[in-house]
Amino acid sequence: MRISLKLLGVYMGVFFTLLFAIGSYVCWKAGLSNFVTFLKWSTWAPIMFIGLPVVCFLWRQKNGFYLSFLEALQFFFVAYLVYEIGYALVNIVLYDVLDKTLYSRALQFNLEQLKASLQQMSQSVVSVQSEIDQAKADPFQGVSVKQLLLGFGQNLVMDFVKSLLLGIVLKEKARPFQVPETFAEIPGAEPPVEG
User: Fold this and answer.
1) Is 44 part of a structural domain of the chain?
2) Model's pTM, two decimal places?
3) Does any domain span residue 15?
4) Using one digit for the tens of pLDDT, what is the confidence trace for 101-144?
5) Centroid of chain to Cα 110
6) Which DSSP string do the residues of 24-89 spell out, in sequence order?
7) Which of 13, 91, 94, 119 would bridge with 83, disulfide CB 3.0–4.6 Å?
8) ∠ at Cα 46 (131, 16), nearest 5°?
9) How many C-beta atoms lie closer than 10 Å to residue 57's C-beta?
10) Highest-scoring range by mean pLDDT, 1-5, 23-27, 113-117, 159-163
11) Do residues 72 and 170 touch, judged by C-beta distance below 8 A?
12) DSSP 3-state assignment of 172?
């Protein structure tokens, strides 16, 4: 049974969403520093950017090495779209349902780390200290719809650009059929038996 590439994109989006959800929840339970470290790694580690082309290449290999640009673009964009929807839902559950103070605590933790690293480099920390004071004075009250839509839109634009680049790289034109001149050029063929 041949699976469609769009459906495979949906499966991959769900798979990477589940990875993010499990990682977020486990690191949140392990403590604030683990959660912040996970967020940094999940933002900058190109797991999806490497995983999707590998899956697409394997699909292309299994299906005769032909993949049009449009099919590749649809696969990557559907996978990224499903992932971004799941990413938003995971963040809503984590920041608005499970722990409403998590965002402000994570922000303060990041700012404290930034302040410590700037002090090590002997630079001025006045602006960082004002950010820390502002974060402590203005606690986070959950993810607003405006923030959610803005982040979702920005991520979709970046994901579309990534999809374009990956589609260009992985597209493969159909190879022209060549008539073999001898039976030896046909894999698995036996010459006719005379007789």
Assistant:
1) yes
2) 0.68
3) yes
4) 777 787 778 777 777 777 766 555 556 566 666 656 665 555 66
5) 23
6) HHHHHHH-HHHHHHHHHHHHHS-HHHHHHHHHHHHHHHHTTT-B-HHHHHHHHHHHHHHHHHHHHH
7) 13
8) 100
9) 15
10) 23-27
11) yes
12) strand
Task: Give me the residue label for tokens 């493969």.
Answer: 172
> Are 69 and 167 spatial neighbours (Cβ–Cβ below 8 Å)?
yes
Tokens of 163: 């999809």
37/18 Cα distance (integer angstroms):
18
Q: Domain of residue 94: give its range.
A: 5-100+142-185
- 81 falls within a domain: yes
Q: Which residue type sits at 90?
A: V
Q: List, in order, residues 6 or more apart from 108 with CB less than 8 Å away.
A: 132, 135, 136
What domain count does the chain have? 1
* Integer CA distances (angstroms), 62 to 4, 57, 129, 132, 151, in order: 12, 9, 56, 54, 36
Structure tokens at 190: 């036996």
Q: Identify the residue whose tokens are 């597209």.
A: 171
- The answer to whether residue 68 sits within a structural domain is yes
